[in-house]
Inverse folding.
């Protein structure tokens, strides 16, 4: 027992001396900081917006940099409780509606939708959080709620600048999904004031099925409870769509979309 006590005393003194030596303390602190930095770098890389973007085709570098600025993803923008809060407010009304398969502009199939101006106080905080994150000014007073069935699709289209501004922010609830944005000339989607087609809320380019082969594009993973903010060039120079399950993949892995509710905020045109 005496030998054990001597050994413990010697070990305690050694630790004390090491800690008192400035150079050794700096070495120990340096190693600890290095480990911390490596851990932090791993976390940052894992949560980087780039990890939710998949670029396809020959992207010009300048266009790619603009796209990275104009297509932003915020993971876990709301938590599970906040998601349930939103659903508890919109579900009673949505359940009274039928899913539609003949949209007036042929851009969406298997959907039901509404617009909501007034929200419960706790959900209004979430809407304000979206506004503060994605918009410099006020958003349009009516927030779009889009309920897409598990087999529903949103076809490639460009939203008209006549009815909303240069920013769209969408909160994805209930399921993961993949959004695809395909580069297209602005004139093909008729985004100009003289166009008669501009009267439509959404414009689908002619022969949109040929765009993928002739243009570069990006697949964007939209995890459940994430927020996407699409602005400027991503709004005007790309069609966007939610992929059907038959072709919904991200980096070679299938992403099955179930029923999806999105809360969509826009700024004034």
């Amino acid at each position: 027992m005496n030998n054990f006590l001597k050994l413990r005393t010697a070990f305690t003194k050694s630790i004390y001396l090491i800690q008192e030596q400035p150079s050794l303390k700096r070495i120990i602190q340096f190693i600890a900081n290095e480990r911390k930095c490596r851990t932090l770098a791993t976390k940052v890389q894992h949560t980087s917006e780039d990890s939710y973007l998949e670029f396809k085709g020959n992207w010009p570098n300048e266009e790619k940099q603009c796209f990275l600025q104009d297509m932003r993803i915020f993971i876990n923008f709301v938590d599970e409780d906040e998601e349930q809060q939103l659903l508890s407010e919109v579900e009673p009304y949505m359940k009274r509606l039928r899913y539609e398969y003949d949209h007036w502009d042929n851009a969406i199939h298997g959907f039901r939708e509404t617009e909501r101006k007034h929200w419960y106080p706790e959900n209004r905080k979430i809407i304000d959080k979206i506004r503060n994150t994605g918009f410099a000014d006020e958003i349009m007073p009516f927030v779009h709620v889009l309920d897409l069935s598990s087999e529903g699709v949103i076809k490639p289209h460009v939203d008209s600048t006549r009815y909303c501004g240069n920013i769209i922010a969408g909160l994805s609830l209930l399921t993961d999904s993949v959004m695809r944005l395909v580069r297209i000339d602005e004139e093909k989607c008729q985004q100009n004031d003289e166009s008669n087609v501009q009267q439509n809320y959404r414009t689908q380019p002619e022969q949109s099925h040929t765009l993928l082969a002739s243009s570069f594009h990006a697949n964007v993973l939209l995890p459940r409870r994430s927020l996407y903010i699409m602005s400027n060039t991503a709004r005007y120079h790309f069609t966007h769509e939610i992929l059907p399950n038959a072709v919904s993949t991200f980096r070679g892995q299938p992403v099955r979309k179930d029923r999806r509710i999105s809360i969509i905020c826009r700024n004034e045109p």
Notes: Confidence is low (pLDDT under 50) at residues 11-48, 188-202, 206-210.
